[in-house]
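Retro notes
What went well: the complex prediction finally ran end to end.
Inputs used:
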Amino acid sequence: MPSITIYEVGPRDGLQNEAALISTADKVAFIDALSDAGLPVVEVSAFVSPAWVPQMADAEEVCRAIARRPGTRYSALVPNQKGLDRALSAGITDVAVFAAASETFSRRNINQSVADSLANYERVARQALDAGCRVRAYLSTAFGCPFEGDVALATVIDLTKALRNLGAYQVAVSDTIGVARPGQVRRVLEALTREVPATELALHFHDTRGMALVNVRASLDFGVATFDSSAGGLGGCPYAPGASGNLATEDLLYMLNGLGYETGVSIDAVAAASSALEPRLGHALSSHYLRARSPRAGHD
Amino acid sequence: MPSITIYEVGPRDGLQNEAALISTADKVAFIDALSDAGLPVVEVSAFVSPAWVPQMADAEEVCRAIARRPGTRYSALVPNQKGLDRALSAGITDVAVFAAASETFSRRNINQSVADSLANYERVARQALDAGCRVRAYLSTAFGCPFEGDVALATVIDLTKALRNLGAYQVAVSDTIGVARPGQVRRVLEALTREVPATELALHFHDTRGMALVNVRASLDFGVATFDSSAGGLGGCPYAPGASGNLATEDLLYMLNGLGYETGVSIDAVAAASSALEPRLGHALSSHYLRARSPRAGHD
């Protein structure tokens, strides 16, 4: 079995969708525990305006305080030049930019047209590459937009290629609103992997409608070997309106372990990291695996 | 695409795992709404001792009060002769018996050895068939036992054949504790479908560890065409200890619809039936699809 890379987004995509403000010390302990669990990449924060995302206001402090485990890379989201400068001075060498496959979503999310955002990211990526960074790109709403509905497959292919052309080593094709189903995933990947090698793609599924794992399973058939997930399902409480529904790292690991894939990650160490953070969140985490570990669970 | 039969177990397997006692009138309204949604089979109650399962004490009243929609069959669980007599006198013509693939689970769940339970069911099934009933059998803990751990594949095959031999038209191979993963599902079905036609099997997955849908997806490759699920995920709140984790009918439909399978069931009508019952339960239902319908959901 080939090995699968789990790209951990809990501290960034997860936490930025949590209402409770988490202390810097708790974030650092969480990230260090995820490192120790063997995760090969952890996205630790976003260098965005604190006015937009108060949860990410301590990006510098987090990046400076975490232990750097050999074997784990630490990435951060950077929306622009200023974010890149901040990230570089905080010692980040893996940065991520995020474009949208939907014009309306792009304008509402980052207040730029898709074309303007690509022009911006081209400059950011060039400087990041010049500084010796690796650059990753997210392509959000690739399977559907909350405002526009369906997204044209040609648009997804064109933007994925555009993001690679600006120097991204990997494009995380993202189901931001969790509408994708395995039939659509197959159709998208059949077309996309004819144009872009599967090894340069990651898939980022949200579990909003419960489809994340079956979509991962469908993606494996196309040779996709990197999947994004969030420890504990952080950021995605299905019982809260507005839940983003992040796929839980533990649930992804439970499935991949059962299919015989190597990940190098300890599922129980990830679960322990999630459990340690859980009391700070004000609600239970959504990971099925985490819930099933409670003593009385699963014996009906 | 072939069509898939959804065997709705919410009013029985779902409700018997809910703490709140639901009134007969609410159960009848729920079942009628599920019928109207187009579900081809609804398991409406269990003719078990009210001392064991107080939620099922009104089995007769429920069976007599529900509307019988042409095109929907109404089944009930019967553990023994007395249960069968009660079911027949309440007008039930589809009955289900339940055996376990684990000796310890059988003794703890129904206080009988597996062999004794089969001898019992043979008599029950013969009488049911003589009375013109269809007989279904559940084989619980087929993918793992909470007490014994792994269950031998040979045991699963032998018991599935034994249950067919006593006259069951279908055996619902059940992952009672929700431990199965698609690799195991493939291994079990590869062996099992060599001995028993896939058309005589149903798969009954619990979502305790989030694997139910990806296990359904794996089963589809073997020609399995009947899956059990519970409207709203009734009986399986992942936030409660002891959650059984029933697969939600809405989530199953959302996936099957996306794969192009015909079911004849309206997803929004099932969701409406679940939503109408939800205020009586004391907690939110676990169906992802149901949660994603809330106005603010899924737009992160």
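What we learned: The domain at 5-292 of chain A is CATH 3.20.20.70 (TIM Barrel).
What to try next: split runs per interface for comparison.
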